[in-house]
Design a protein that fits this description.
Shape: elongated
Strand content: 5-15%
């Protein structure tokens, strides 16, 4: 009986081992599937976080936003601020009081007769240089004037960057409108080409008209591509003017044109006299140069220092107090004085140059009025250009509506579009 059941028991063990192996393989497969699902879910979550949603839109920067970013991140403005801080530290150095000088000496005292040692000796001294008023006052005045000049340079750099940002901003707006007009002209010529091609296919026009339409469409397409290139260049220049914190894929908010109300000429001149950073810088540099000249001249005067010393010997102790006087016998600082005088003359000439550029009667009567007139002319030209665009669109629509009766309405509308495109080109 045992021999009869042995094959059956062996077969049971075989199937049992097979089932265990299959269960293990299924468990391993399930673990692999779970790992793959986990990796897939994490990857989907990462891309869902990184990719913008449908409702999310890119922030459009206004002109005020661009100016704020430029003031806080433009490298030239940051460098000017660091320069102003460095000059401020120079003012702190100019106001500093000289440090005292300490001196200590120790030795031995011996007899001349038998060279025997009698005892030890020591001495010390303290010297305090005096910061004389005739050198301290011009030195501090020169540092303060230099700080004012540095602040004026910083303000001038900020005004320059703000002006550059405004120019780039409006140039970018202009390039956008040019590209929009070029795309409209390209769409117009494409419609003309398609309809002339249809007329050619049905035999209503000659092939010359089709070739002409194809050529004109290619020309307008090249103009649109050039407008796109100029737009990209203008966008890059705007980002360069603002600073590296502005993202490369930024968008701007279109601002309407606003006419500037110019104040009366005397008020404008008085504001320039009090607020112009170039004049402020020139005046501060002149004051600094004059203070440095006074400093170099006063440096030839004697310098004083207070001194106290004590000597300790085996038999007695000496204490003495006095004054150290530096007498300018050999060095009269002739080269330094002449250099300072030349700097004063240069600062005066630069101040006269800036004043002449701003307060000259011809300049005031001519340039400011000319600038105001130019601004009004540009503003009126922009309004006239917008009105011309509306009238041209209305005429184009009328031409398209009358094409069936005239037969050449598309070509006439195209020619007007070509003339308009040429007028818009810089």
């Amino acid at each position: 009986m045992a021999a009869m059941f042995e094959p059956y028991q062996g077969q049971q063990r075989y199937f049992l081992i097979k089932n265990m192996q299959s269960n293990r393989s299924e468990v391993g497969l399930n673990k692999k599937i779970m790992r793959l699902l986990a990796l897939l879910i994490s990857a989907i979550g990462f891309f869902a976080i990184s990719l913008p949603s449908e409702g999310q839109t890119t922030k459009k920067h206004s002109l005020d936003d661009l100016i704020a970013i430029a003031i806080n991140s433009n490298p030239e403005i940051l460098a000017a601020r660091d320069q102003a801080k460095a000059v401020g530290e120079q003012l702190s150095a100019a106001r500093a009081i000289p440090n005292p000088e300490f001196e200590g000496v120790r030795g031995q005292q011996k007899s001349r007769a038998d060279n025997s040692r009698i005892g030890s000796t020591s001495s010390w001294s303290v010297t305090q240089p005096l910061d004389m008023p005739y050198t301290r006052i011009p030195r501090v005045n020169a540092a303060e004037a230099q700080l004012q000049a540095s602040d004026a340079m910083r303000i001038a750099k900020e005004f320059e960057i703000i002006s550059k940002v405004k120019n780039r901003y409006y140039d970018y707006m202009r390039r956008q409108e040019e590209l929009k007009a070029a795309n409209e002209d390209m769409e117009l010529t494409r419609q003309i080409r398609d309809r002339i091609q249809l007329r050619y296919q049905v035999g209503e026009t000659a092939k010359f008209e089709l070739i002409r339409a194809e050529t004109d469409f290619l020309n307008v397409k090249m103009v649109a591509q050039a407008s796109q290139s100029r737009l990209n260049q203008s966008k890059s220049q705007l980002r360069q003017a603002v600073g590296p914190q502005l993202p490369a894929n930024f968008e701007i908010a279109i601002a309407p044109f606003k006419e500037i109300e110019f104040p009366p000429l005397p008020i404008l001149v008085e504001e320039i006299r009090n607020q112009n950073p170039e004049l402020t810088r020139a005046k501060a540099e002149l004051a600094s140069a004059e203070s440095k000249l006074s400093l170099e001249k006063n440096s030839r005067l004697p310098k004083l220092a207070l001194k106290a010393q004590q000597s300790n010997e085996p038999d007695f102790r000496d204490r003495s107090y006095g004054v150290v006087l530096t007498v300018p016998i050999w060095d009269w600082r002739i080269g330094q004085v002449r250099e300072a005088a030349a700097n004063v003359s240069r600062a005066k000439n630069m101040l006269n140059y800036e004043s002449q550029n701003i307060f000259c009667a011809r300049y005031i009567g001519g340039s400011f009025s000319h600038l105001a007139w130019d601004w009004r002319s540009i503003f009126q030209y922009a309004e006239a250009f917008q009105g011309n665009r509306r009238s041209q669109n209305a005429q184009d629509s009328f031409s398209f509506g009358g094409w069936d009766s005239s037969g050449r309405g598309f070509l006439e509308a195209y020619e007007r579009g070509q003339v308009r495109t040429i007028d818009q080109a810089p």
